[in-house]
Amino acid sequence: MLSDREFVTGGEAKSGTRAPSPVSVVRRGVSGRSSITVSWAEPDRPNGIILEYEIKYFEKVVPPSPVSVVRRGVSGRSSITVSWAEPDRPNGIILEYEIKYFEKRQDTVSTSHPEKQEKTLEGSRREQDSGYTIIKSQQTEMVVEGLKPSSAYIFQVRARTSAGYGAFSRRFEFQTSPYLAASSERAQASVVAVAITLVLVLLALVAGFLLSG
Questions:
Q1: Distance CA 49, CA 1 (A)
Q2: What Å distances lie between residue 201 and 136, 191, 192, CA to CA?
Q3: Which residues of 48-140 form beta strands (DSSP E)?
Q4: b/e for 49-84, b at 16 or more Cβ within 10 A?
Q5: What confidence score (pLDDT) does residue 3 get?
Q6: Closest C-alpha among 101, 98, 181 to residue 133
Q7: pLDDT (tens digit, 0 to 9) for every residue of the chain, 213 residues total?
């Protein structure tokens, strides 16, 4: 029973006289989540009594499968919270995730020869070019900031293990909140300011009345 992670397997037989010919065929039987059953036939030329078989195998390291779903969380005027689940087949320990996003209207911008710059933002490395931005994170949730209000953005996520990066997820479109939120905030601030002014005026009138009396 061998570990179930895509193995390349070969067989070598040992006998008490001349070395036997190679085992020509190795077949896979029942495969489970953490095991594989393999079988083989005796060598064509055993050259004696087979004493034992030696099974040599190694893991074929492959990158993780794509992230299948990216979800939107809280959305603000200039930020969007995105989250995702670990790939269905991580094929190892996930070291980090790469979140790629860009404004939807920039979808047609050519990025064949991007000039990348690296910045540090709250512990995550950000790479920018004229068409998209990439943020790297070890978590499965990220608050993406510095966005435009009432704008649509395209997001893609991929995972990395010691074998490298997997493929990006399909594109997911999310939108920031409109300017209306900012207008409401300003309106509320104005109402508060007017109320404070009226209270001060009333206090001044009352104080003046008391002093005159």
A1: 24
A2: 55, 15, 14
A3: 50-59, 70-75, 79-84, 96-103, 117-121, 124-128, 133-137
A4: eeeeeeeebeeeeebbbbbeebeeeeeebeebbbeb
A5: 44
A6: 101
A7: 444 444 445 555 555 567 899 988 888 888 887 888 999 989 988 888 888 888 888 777 899 999 999 999 998 999 999 999 999 999 999 999 999 999 987 444 444 444 443 443 444 444 444 489 999 999 999 999 999 999 999 999 999 999 999 999 999 999 999 865 445 556 677 777 878 888 888 887 877 777 776
Token pair for residue 8?
Answer: 């390349």
DSSP state of 117: E
| Helix, strand and coil in the chain, % to nearest 5 | 15, 40, 40
Which residue is it, tokens 């404070």? 196
Cite the beta strand spans of the chain per DSSP E. Answer: 7-15, 26-31, 36-40, 50-59, 70-75, 79-84, 96-103, 117-121, 124-128, 133-137, 141-145, 152-161, 164-165, 172-175
Distance of CA 138 to the CA centre of its chain: 8
Calpha distance 191→183 (Å, rounded): 12
Q: Which helix (DSSP H) or strand (DSSP E) does residue 150 occupy? A: none
Residue 84 pairs with which residues in a beta bridge?
70
The 10 Å Cβ neighbour count of residue 142 is 22
Q: Residue 144: what residue type?
A: V
